[in-house]
Structure formats: structure tokens, C-alpha cells
Amino acid sequence: MLKKEDLKRIGYSYFVNLLDVHTKNGLKEVKSLNLKTDEELFVIHEDLRKISLFFNNDFSVINIYLNHLFDIDLIAKKISNKEPLTIVEVFDMKKYLINTLNIINEIKTLDISFTLDNPGHLIDYLNENNTITNDFYIYNKYDDELFEVRELKQKLEKEYLEEHDPLLKQNILEERSKIVKAEKIIEYRCLVDITEVLSNNIDVILRIVKNVEMLDLMIAKVKITKHFQTSLPSFNQGISFKEILNPLLSKLVNDLGHDYQEIDIELESTVNLLTGANMGGKSSAMDTLLLNVILARSGFYTFSKEANVPYIRTIHFMYSKGANQSHGLSSFGNELIEIDKILKNSDKFDFVVVDEFAQTTNPKEGRLFVKALINILKEKKCSSFISSHYDNISQEVNHYQVIGIKENITNMKEIEHISKYMDYSILKTNSKKTPKQAITIANILLEDSDLLNQLEILIRSEKNES
Amino acid sequence: MGIVSVGYEGEDIDLVTNTNKPRIFVKKDSFIATAKNLIKDSDITLKIVDNTMIKSPLGEIIIVKALSNGFIKVAGPSIVKDLEEVVNKMINYGAKNVIIDGALSRTSLSKNKYSSTCVLATSANLNPDIFKAVDETKMFLNILTLPKTKIDFNQKKKPINSVDDNILIEDENNTYLYIKGALTDKTVKNILESYNATKKLTLVADHPSHILLSYKIYNHLKMLEVNLEVINDIDVSLITINPTSAKGYNFDAKQFQNLIQSNTSIKVINVLEVI
To answer: By three-state DSSP, how is residue B34 classified?
Structure first.
């Protein structure tokens, strides 16, 4: 499965930040990357559609309740352990239950796959009488002696204020201290009883917490659809997306003042090879695809106009880390170990994504490594997406090319503006060759450069030789 | 009544000076903002009204309503923005007046934005010499009650130098200098070094809480007849004196009260006489 750095690279961490999830466990579920079966996704999609229709564009009321959701894990744990709650904890529990009731009332017409238990009986128990109040104190109703003790306490307080003799005042204070102590003992006894009642209902409480968190997550999923073009995927053979987008990359491109180009991707359930020019968007396409495949199979909307992603057991991802070193191995050494592990653990229900494997070694050997990788994945019948810029590795695989530099571009002096001159579309091709656009890019990026002059001499000499 | 403190109040012994402290007595129906961990130490019957979720070292700040008279420990938020939130909440819950227990180092809380009036509390603790204690109290009182300036500094957009954004306005006989930020001893020394004494100088601060002058420099300005004014003035409605010191000495209560009262029209009361 993907590591933290992989999730950051493909824009999943950015996506998590975009989601307006209020509950801790809702966020935990988002971060768990729990890939679902088709049956599980079917149920989730049904719920999402109902929630989406119900809220349409107005989340204002539900937002108020969701904003008031706070973490009651510790309180629930204390209740489970029958450890007496403090008065503030009982107040927090009551507030949480009232908030749940408000949410239930808000969505009561929704027929979704998880039901929110009505906590009305618990709220009643935590109210002084039949009226729901947002405050809490240890009511006299909890203990027969409490009323009597409190009456006595108030009587002494009145006497204290009316008394002028310091000695008598002191006596009253001492008497009051005894009563305060008695009141505290009874209040503690009440808190033990309240905890007991709540612990008898702990299953209901835990179910409410779990389902409120699920609802919170579902609503967060729906809310994000108001800001992007999204779709729920179907589960047929072959991964395909129409007008796919990556919110992180889209933001980076838009921040530079350019338009983000949505692309179409259609893969077959076998090895798919992607080639293209340097800076042509191969890695961006892979990151975008991977992000949306994860979203599709984890029960989220995808950032696309149309999506189809069949069942995936596990996703394996490896990208070239360039010349970095870690654990005393070169980047190539690390890649070998990582690829070997992926190949040993993958099967036909897995999706393998490998970006520029063996790019740091010499091209002759590098090509062999990539071909070996492709052969093993084909044998394993693994659905995969491999990017490379080596030639002659595309036999019997689906070969796709990023179009790259648009025609008639001759003057591009600012590298940050390169996206203006690129076409990031992906086209299926029968060619065995990878596009040669590095020299074209050098030509339009560099001016009066020794490197460029030397390149031209070499190109001419190679042409003459051939 | 609502009660909130910027510090920790109500303990029997002062944690800093290790001296006895009076406990905080609240009447039935008061609202109190205090830290979660201090609630168990109160002897009032209390109702939890709100968990503000504002963090403090002693747990979240909880707003409680007293259902009986009694003693309570109070620890409030340390950030001014949080304090404002707590005050507003107590007013919304029904408190007609809210007392913010401030500190000399936190006079910024006396801004109109947070509070409508200010009570200056002084005591024998300030200085064992009654006259010095009175003089220091007078200085604090004078700063807190500085007059609102009549000069509109917004008319003059251009600062006299780009570093500190101070604004200078002059007429035939007067120089008015608006000091952006704190007016400290160092600022005053710098100003006086470059000041041409032919005109009468008035230093204007944004708010009394921005005037952080030592007793010595404050008196020096008085000798030079330099005026102090503020853009935003505050209302001081009461002065309380405590003639006893936790350090073990007492002032003559009447003398202390009279000496302070002789300098101001604001009512001065002895806290020991109203308990």
C-alpha cells in the first residue's frame, strides 16, 4: 500500500485537507485508505446519492450541528469501564446526545444504510424534567437526600448573611462546611449512578458515535462535490476516466495563472505503458490517475466527469526517487528492492503503478529492467500503469503517449510557463518508439547556449553518419 | 453577575508570593468562568452552562452558574480574544455585569472593546511606605485616566519616520506626537534627545495600556511639563484600597483612603469595610 510520502506526492494529503471532516474517527477512516468491495461501494454510493439529493446545496443547518461534534472517546471509555464521570463529562455527554438528536431531526426522512439511534431516553434522564435544556447539574431527582441537604445549605447561607456576630458567623460557616461535605458525597453517589445508567446504554452510545462519524464523513464527501466536477465510479473491466482532475495539481497550475488541463485515461486490465516527453506530464498523469483510483475504490467521489474502476485488492506504487540515498543504498538499489517486493506481493486483483523505473541506470540495462518488469506483470495478469522513456519496450502492451509540446512553438523563455505550451492529453499508439522532444524543449528554453550549439553539432554528425 | 479572571484566583495561598489570599465568594445566580479541574474545589451547588473548549493549563474553560452562595476558585483564559468570547457568552447566558479580574500587566483588557469600565485596586502591598504607595497609585490612576486627545491624527497620514510610524502634528505653540505602539522609557528618552523645547510637547498613545513608563520617567515628563494624552480613553469608576499587606504590615486605613481620595473625584472604598 502507499506510504505517507506517496500520498503527499499524488495529492491525497491535500485532498484530506480539503475535506470538511469534523470527527476524529471520520478523519481516521479517510486516512486509512480502506479499499472496498463492489458490494460495499454500491451501498456507499446509494447513501451518497440520497445525502446529496437531501442537502442539494444547503449544508448550513447540518454544518452547525457538525461543528459542535467533539471527541467523546475518552468519556465513552470511562463509561465502558464504569469509571464515574465528572459533572463536566456528563454535561459534555448530554450535549453530544442533544446534538445527535438535532442531526437525526435534520435528516430523519433519509433512508440510509446506517441508522442513528434516537438518544431521547438518555437525554430525558439527563434533564431535570421533560424540557430539554443545554445545561446540566446534579438534579435533586437523582437522590432523595439531595433536596434536603441543599435546602439546609441555603438556610445556613441566609443565616450567615443575616448574622453580625463574628463568632456566630464562624459557627454557621463550620456547620455549612459539614453540609457541603454531605452534598459532595451525595453528588458523587449520583455521578456513580449516572455513569451506571449510561454504561447500561453503552452499546447505543458507541453506535451513535460510530454512525454520527460515518454521517460526518458522508456529508464531507458530498460537500466537496459542490466545488469540483465529480462522479461516482462504475465497476466494469478496465480503469477509465473522462476529464480527470487532480485538485492539488489544479491548484498549483491555477496559482501560476494557467488553466489546468483535464485529461481522459482509458486503461485495459493488463500492462499499460505511458511514454512521453520530459516535462510532458507523465508523472502528473500517473499521480492524477492513482489519486482517483484510490478515491473510487475507497468510497469517495472521483474528480472526473465519468469514472470506471473495477475491484482492486491492493494498490502498489513506486516512483523514481532520483539520486537520493537512503539506508546506505543508491536510489537504484532502493528501487530494485521496492520493485522486487511489489512483484512478490502482487496478484491479478492488484493495481501496480510504476513511474520511471530504472531511469537512473544506463539506458541499455535500464530498458532490460523495465522489459523484465513488464513481462512479470503480464504473466501475473496484473493491471498496471508503467511510465518510461526507454525505446522498444512496448511490445504486446497497451502503449499510450502524452502528446507533449504543441506544434509551432518556438519561443518559450520561462520554464514556469511551460504548461501553456504543453498538451497533456494521452493517446493510445501502436508506435514502439518513445517521443523525442528533449531537444525541442532545449531549443525553445535556451538561447545562445553552448549546450545547444554542441547538441546541434552532434545531431548533424549523427545524421551524416547514418 | 459574571466573574472571570485572567489569572488563577481563589486559592488559599498565593502560589507566587506564598502568602494568604482571600477566597472568592459568589452569590447564587452568578456566572463564573473557570477551569475544568477547579470545579471540584468549589463549595457552591453549580450548574454547568457551557464548555467553551478554550484550553487552559487547568483544563478547558467552563462556564458555570451558581445555584447557591459559596466559594469558588477561578482560572480564566490567558488570551484576550478568548476572554472576550467568554465575557460575551456569560452576557448571553444572562449575566447583566461581568467582572474581569485583571492584572496591572494586563491593562489592555480595560479597552472599551472588552470592558465598559475599570476598577483600580491598590493595596499596602505596593510599597511599605504609605506615601510612596499613594504616589505609585496616583501615577497608575493618572495614566488610566489620561484625557482623550482632541487632535485628529488621521488627517496627517505621513509618519515622521518610516521606522516607527509615529505621527507629528504642530501648531504655533504646540507639538503633538502620536506614538504608535508602546510608550516606554526608551521611547521617551529618544524623543527628548531630539526635541526642540520651544513648543509645548504632548505625547499621544493609542490607549493607557500602551503607556509603560517607570515612575522615574513619568515624573521626569511631569517636571518638563510634557503632556500625555490617549486616542482611546477608558472609564475608571471606582478605586478600592486594601490597607493590609500580605507581607505582614498594615497602613492606617483611613489615612490611606484619604490620601488617595484627596487626589481624585473617583470614589475610593476600603475593601475591608464592605466584606
So the answer is: strand
pLDDT band at B163 (very low <50, low <70, confident <90, very high): very low
Host domain of residue B81 = 2-127+234-274
What is the share, in percent, of chain B residues with pLDDT greater than 90?
A: 42
**Does residue A16 belong to any structural domain of this protein?**
no
Handedness of CA A27, A30, A33, A37 (dihedral sign): positive
Q: What is the mean pLDDT of residues A20-46?
A: 89
ipTM of the complex: 0.75
User: Of A366, A427, A370, A362, which is closest to residue A394 (Cα–Cα)?
Assistant: A370
Domain assignment of residue B68, yes or no: yes
Residue-level pLDDT at B110: 62
Distance of CA A324 to the CA centre of its chain: 28
Q: How many domains does chain B have?
A: 2
Are A180 and B67 a contacting pair at CB < 8 A? no
pLDDT exceeds 90 at position B124: yes
In a domain, A154, yes or no: yes
In which order are the strands placed within the sheet that holds B46-51? B46-51, B61-66, B31-35, B2-5, B98-101
- Domain C-terminal end among A194, A226, A258: A226
Mean pLDDT of all residues in A92-110: 89
Residues A339 and A386 in one domain: yes
Q: Please say if the pLDDT value at position B114 is more than 80.
A: no
- Residue B47 inside a domain? The answer is yes
Of chain B residues 130-159, which have a CB less than 8 A from chain A? none
Is A86 in contact with B47 (Cβ distance < 8 A)?
A: no
* CA atoms in the 13 A half-sphere facing the CB of A60: 1
Q: To the nearest whole angstrom, how far is the Cα of A174 from the nearest Cα of chain B?
A: 13
Distance, in Å, from the CA atom of A204 to the CA atom of A207, rounded to the nearest integer, reads 5
Residues A254, A203, single domain; the answer is no
Of residues A428 and B228, more confidently modeled: B228
> How far is the alpha carbon of B253 from chain A, nearest alpha carbon, in Å?
21
Same domain, A130 and A246: no
How close is the nearest chain A Cα to the Cα of B183, in Å?
Answer: 42
Q: Examine residue A27 and state whether it is found in any structural domain, yes or no.
A: no
B215-250 pLDDT tens trace: 889 988 888 889 999 988 888 999 999 999 888 899
What's the average model confidence in pLDDT over A58-62? Answer: 81
Each residue of A219-275: pLDDT tens digit? Answer: 999 999 989 999 999 999 899 999 999 999 999 988 888 888 899 999 988 899 998
Which A residues 109-168 touch B at CB under 8 Å?
134-137, 150, 153-154, 157, 161
Ramachandran area for residue A430 (φ above 0: left; ψ -120 to 50: alpha; else beta): alpha
Q: Are residues A112 and A253 in the same domain?
A: no
Residue A189's domain comprises 36-226
User: Is residue B134 one of the residues assigned to a domain?
Assistant: no
Question: Domain containing B197 — which CATH number?
Answer: 3.30.750
Q: Are residues A111 and A183 in the same domain?
A: yes
And the C-alpha cell for B148?
482623550
Residue of higher predicted confidence among B101 and A320: B101
| B81 falls within a domain | yes
Single-letter amino acid, residue B181: G
Residue B41 sits at the chain A interface (C-beta within 8 Å): no
